[in-house]
Amino acid sequence: MNIRLVIRLFVAILLGLIGWQLGYSAAAALDPLFRWAWIVGLSGVFIGALLGLLFAPYLTIVPFNAVRKWIASVAVSDLVAAGVGLILGLVISALVTFPLRALPGFLGNLMPLLAAIAITYVCIMVVVMRHREIAEYVTERKFLTGAPRKGFVVGNRYILDTSSIVDGRIADIVSTGFLSGDLIVPQFILRELQAIADSQDSLKRARGRRGLDVLAALQESSNVRVEIFEGHIEAGEDVDSKLLYLAKDLSAPIITNDYNLNKIATLQGVKILNVNELAHALRPVLLPGEDLTVKIIQEGKEYNQGVGYLDDGTMVVVEGGKSKMNCEVDVVVTRVLQTVAGRMVFAQLADVERDAR
């Protein structure tokens, strides 16, 4: 039998019994000598059963699905916090409402109820919104003195996407102490990372396993705390949409190397921390006349040019460097060109530059 039909019949019977009780009691109260009160009761049964058959899904299934959907979208930590807030609110309400019952008249019944609702609501909201700070204070600090324990980390929250984890440089940034706080890794990012690690392509598989190793290293770091977000997000099918929705919901920036995600997040007002932009900002400033040592590894596009690279990936084009292939040479910077693709340095061999002087 269909579960919806069973629910309709159950609600119809329940409302039918309520209709009988209300109809019969009302008829008997209005006219104790009314011998046909059972007719009014049967009318109540018919009306109640009809309402139950028509509106049972809206009274049962629809609210149940809405609650189930809400529970699935909320993180486990928030559900636990709501339960703690509810218990705390009920305890405080019991203490506060006790003297309110002594108020005269209807106030003695109304005020305790209103106070209990208000206190419970406030307690739930406070615990849910600040449960991370409360947990940090209770578990990571000495309760009486408030002195932080060794290794305790206080900081902001950041959301990691797959590209930043696979890249691996985030672990180096954390190890230096420049980044501290909570690193949030959503479940859908973990699933995507696992899919990459299980890929048939050897290169993708290696990158995925590297990402898992990076997460393990971050979990062992004392500078940050890795938090797995287990809430269900129905903002869209693609990972980027879910990341943006979560970032807005938690008011947390996203750490990424994804250029497209960077642009979309900027348009939607979501803060992005791009590891590539950080690496670009930390590149040493090169000025014309500075000396460098670079290894020539390939020929340039122009005549007699050689090309090498600095440790940060900056291309160095050396005039007359073709003859120094696979050799480390001292060069002098002549000019620096900033392009959309990055920075390009032009230089001459140090011996040639000194002879020119």
UniProtKB/TrEMBL annotation:
The lineage of its organism: Bacteria, Bacillati, Chloroflexota, Chloroflexia, Candidatus Thermobaculales. Keywords: Hydrolase, Magnesium, Membrane, Nuclease, Transmembrane, Transmembrane helix. This is PilT protein domain protein. PROSITE patterns: TRAM. SUPFAM superfamilies: PIN domain-like. Its cofactor is Mg(2+). Residues 285-357 form the TRAM domain. It comes from Thermobaculum terrenum (strain ATCC BAA-798 / CCMEE 7001 / YNP1). GO terms for molecular function: hydrolase activity; nuclease activity. The chain crosses the membrane at residues 35-58, 70-98, 110-129.
